[in-house]
């Protein structure tokens, strides 16, 4: 009883569905099992092929009615070895409370608080590149400047898709997916805010299957509750305008949940509990980063 009111359990928490982690490959077990990658907390490097080929023809080829074509050009290099890299970041929650009122519930509460918040925080860090108010999360989505350190590409510059001006979300989404599959030559991941997803769903552009949203072409869509909609230059979204991004395949790894015991969390100087729970993540993608802006207020209509 508190002030005569009965204490009851809070409503059950339900995590957001269809976010970044629903479309990314979880490599935690793979990394942890390999002695060469188990210490990924210092960062990781990978070498995607980023497929890009060309075509040619036999020099003896003849075309009926047109004669022989000119000799085929030399077979030039079509791809290079590019090393991409990612930096880890840590999601945490903290609660300070008096010892008598918090002791028995401390570990359960702090662990649940992290579980409820971590997916959102990971999405926000992956979109903005910010952790602890510093731009230290690489790679991320909203950036127009590449970053290469020691020959390792930490950040690609977002390639803005030219739509010829402000367009509705169906046109913008289609242009983004087109550019992304041309870049990747295979399946891609599209990243959208909740507001953009609502419009895409209303216009039958994406469909949920087995806990993941897909386009009609089978490309995965991450609907991030933590996605901000900001531009590659860092300009915030508005109720009318938002940005969408596309990348190559996405993967992540996460460390164990670190939650100290109540005894370890007693602050001797304040005689209170300072409970902290945290988990480290690393997120990466391969080859492509594209962006497009859409005006959510534009009417979508079809020819008569």
Describe this structure in words.
The protein is α+β, with helices and mostly antiparallel strands and 304 residues long. It is built from 6 helices and 18 strands. The protein has helices spanning 20-23, 28-33, 99-102, 106-128, 169-184, 194-202, and strands at 25-26, 44-46, 83-86, 89-98, 130-131, 134-135, 147-149, 152-155, 159-160, 189-192, 206-209, 212-215, 220-223, 241-247, 250-254, 266-267, 272-285, 289-295. The strands form 4 sheets. A 7-stranded mixed beta sheet has the order 9-18-14-10-13-12-11. Strands 1, 4, 15, 16 and 17 form a 5-stranded mixed beta sheet that branches. Strands 2-3-8-7 form a 4-stranded mixed beta sheet, with no helix packed on it. The protein is globular, with a radius of gyration of 24 Å. The N and C termini lie far apart (66 Å). The model has no long low-confidence stretch (mean pLDDT 90).
Layout of helices and strands, plus pairs?
Elements: H1 20-23, E1 25-26, H2 28-33, E2 44-46, E3 83-86, E4 89-98, H3 99-102, H4 106-128, E5 130-131, E6 134-135, E7 147-149, E8 152-155, E9 159-160, H5 169-184, E10 189-192, H6 194-202, E11 206-209, E12 212-215, E13 220-223, E14 241-247, E15 250-254, E16 266-267, E17 272-285, E18 289-295
Parallel strand pairs: 1-15, 3-8, 9-18, 10-13
Antiparallel strand pairs: 2-3, 4-17, 5-6, 7-8, 10-14, 11-12, 12-13, 14-18, 15-17, 16-17
């Amino acid at each position: 009883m508190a002030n005569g009111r009965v204490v009851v359990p809070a409503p059950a928490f339900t995590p957001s569905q269809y976010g970044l982690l629903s479309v990314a490959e979880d490599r935690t077990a793979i990394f942890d099992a390999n002695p060469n990658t188990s210490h990924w907390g210092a960062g990781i490097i990978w070498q995607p092929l980023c497929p890009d080929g060309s075509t040619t023809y036999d020099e003896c080829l003849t075309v009926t009615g047109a004669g022989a074509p000119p000799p085929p050009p030399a077979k030039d290099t079509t791809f290079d070895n590019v090393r991409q890299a990612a930096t880890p970041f840590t999601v945490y929650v903290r609660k300070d409370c008096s010892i008598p009122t918090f002791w028995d519930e401390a570990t359960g509460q702090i662990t649940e608080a992290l579980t409820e918040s971590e997916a959102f925080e990971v999405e926000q860090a992956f979109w903005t590149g910010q952790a602890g108010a510093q731009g230290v999360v690489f790679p991320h989505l909203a950036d127009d400047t590449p970053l290469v350190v020691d020959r390792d590409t930490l950040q690609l510059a977002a390639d803005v898709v030219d739509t010829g001006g402000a367009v509705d979300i169906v046109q913008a989404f289609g242009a983004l997916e087109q550019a992304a599959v041309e870049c990747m030559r295979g399946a891609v991941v599209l990243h959208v805010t909740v507001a953009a997803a609502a419009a895409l769903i209303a216009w039958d552009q994406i469909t949920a299957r087995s806990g993941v949203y897909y386009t009609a072409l089978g490309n995965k869509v991450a609907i991030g509750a933590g996605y901000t909609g900001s531009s590659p230059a860092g300009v915030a979204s508005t109720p009318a305008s938002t940005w969408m991004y596309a990348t190559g395949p996405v993967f992540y790894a996460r460390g164990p949940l670190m939650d100290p015991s109540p005894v370890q969390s007693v602050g001797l100087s304040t005689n209170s509990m300072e409970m902290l729970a945290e988990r480290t993540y690393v997120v990466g993608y391969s080859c492509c980063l594209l962006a497009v802006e859409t005006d959510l207020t534009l009417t979508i209509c079809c020819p008569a």
